[in-house]
Design brief:
Strand content: 15-25%
Shape: globular
Number of strands: 18
Largest sheet: 6 strands, mixed
Number of helices: 8
Helix content: 25-40%
Strand order of the largest sheet: 8-7-2-1-17-18
Structural class: alpha/beta
């Protein structure tokens, strides 16, 4: 482990210790730990799984956008590895340093792909280059989730883990999650939780500027969610786990974009971008708790009528996990937002 990695680990440990202070769980309480938008970060996944022990959590819930955003190409030239980052070319000729570099990429959500010079040229210039690149990207996503599943199976015994894909997640990853004996994929489902609660989940959103895999118009999104929550027996004991936050809720503030999808005014100007359909459904059914993500920079806890609504936010690119701790007593008690 290098000096920078050691410093980051120490800082994460100190932050986690500070934010975990005063969070002892009372007897008979069911503790839920919720995190979201890990975007391929293996460090965030490990911390998510370990939160069962660290926070004494009885139930783990992972919100949407589990997969990363980019392949990181690296060329193996025999005696050295080369790559380009932010327009600059870099070289690594030490195996230990290279292994450390790969770990750092995986921990911050990238998918490193090591190839020789011939394959690199082919991926740049072949007629089917884009198709081949997409195949590699998808394969890497599936491999990463398989590794995560194996890690969870080695660490967890009887702690239930519920995962729900998000709009950024391709459909092909679902079968990998479904192969797990530890993690339950709960897209479109209602599952029973302790204390008489039921949780309804979906990772679908209304349309985004990036035309992602799981998005649809507001009217269709509302119809989808109505179909899911109709399976709940008692809305006074309901938890909504919807990837997108409700519109104008303080949990959906994102940088205002220009026509080229670039932040206006240096990202200092924000606007609400959440779903009106999701807000309407929360206002109508008033579940005690509603869990959200999607907008990384809009971390917070607010009230929508009688509903406690939470977005723990995401800083996955820093290999740091943000989450929310909620105790069911059986009434909902939002213990706090944490980072580590």
């Amino acid at each position: 482990m290098g000096v920078i990695s050691s410093i980051k680990e120490k800082l994460n440990q100190e932050t986690t210790s500070d934010e975990a202070a005063g969070m002892e769980k009372d007897p008979g309480v069911t503790r839920l730990f919720f995190a979201t938008d890990v975007h391929g970060s293996s460090a965030c996944w490990r911390k998510f799984v370990n939160s069962a022990d660290f926070y004494d959590a009885d139930v783990l819930v992972l919100g949407g956008d589990t997969t990363g955003k980019a392949i990181f190409p690296i060329v193996d030239e025999g005696d050295r590895y080369t790559y380009t980052r932010q327009g600059d070319e870099h070289t690594i000729d030490d195996d230990e340093e290279f292994d450390e570099f790969l770990d750092s990429l995986e921990d911050t959500g990238y998918y490193p792909y090591v190839m020789d010079e011939a394959e690199y040229e082919q991926l740049q210039n072949a007629d089917d280059a884009e198709e081949r690149q997409n195949e590699i990207f998808l394969t890497k996503m599936q491999e990463r989730i398989r590794e995560w599943v194996e890690f969870a199976e080695g660490k967890l015994d009887d702690t239930p883990v519920y995962a729900c894909p998000g709009n950024d997640d391709p459909f092909e990853i679902d079968e990998v999650w479904e192969s797990s004996d530890v993690v339950d994929l709960v897209e479109g489902e209602v599952v029973d939780l302790p204390q008489g609660y039921q949780m309804a989940s979906t990772g679908w959103t209304h349309p985004t500027p990036w035309d992602t895999d799981r998005e649809e118009p507001e009217d269709e999104l509302r119809e989808r969610i109505e179909g899911i929550v109709s399976g709940i027996d008692d809305y006074d004991r309901a938890i909504f786990n919807f990837h997108e936050p409700p519109y104008d809720s303080q949990l959906d503030e994102a940088p205002e974009l220009d026509e080229d999808l670039r932040p206006k005014f240096g990202a200092q100007s924000t606007e609400p971008v959440g779903s009106e359909a999701i807000r309407e459904i929360i206002e109508e059914y008033q579940p005690p708790l509603s869990l959200h993500g999607h907008i990384h920079e809009s971390r917070g806890h607010t009230k929508i009528g009688d509903t406690d609504a939470i977005n723990p936010g995401s800083v996955y690119s820093e290999a740091s996990l943000q989450g929310a701790i909620v105790d069911l007593r059986p009434e909902v008690d939002v213990v706090g937002l944490v980072r580590g």
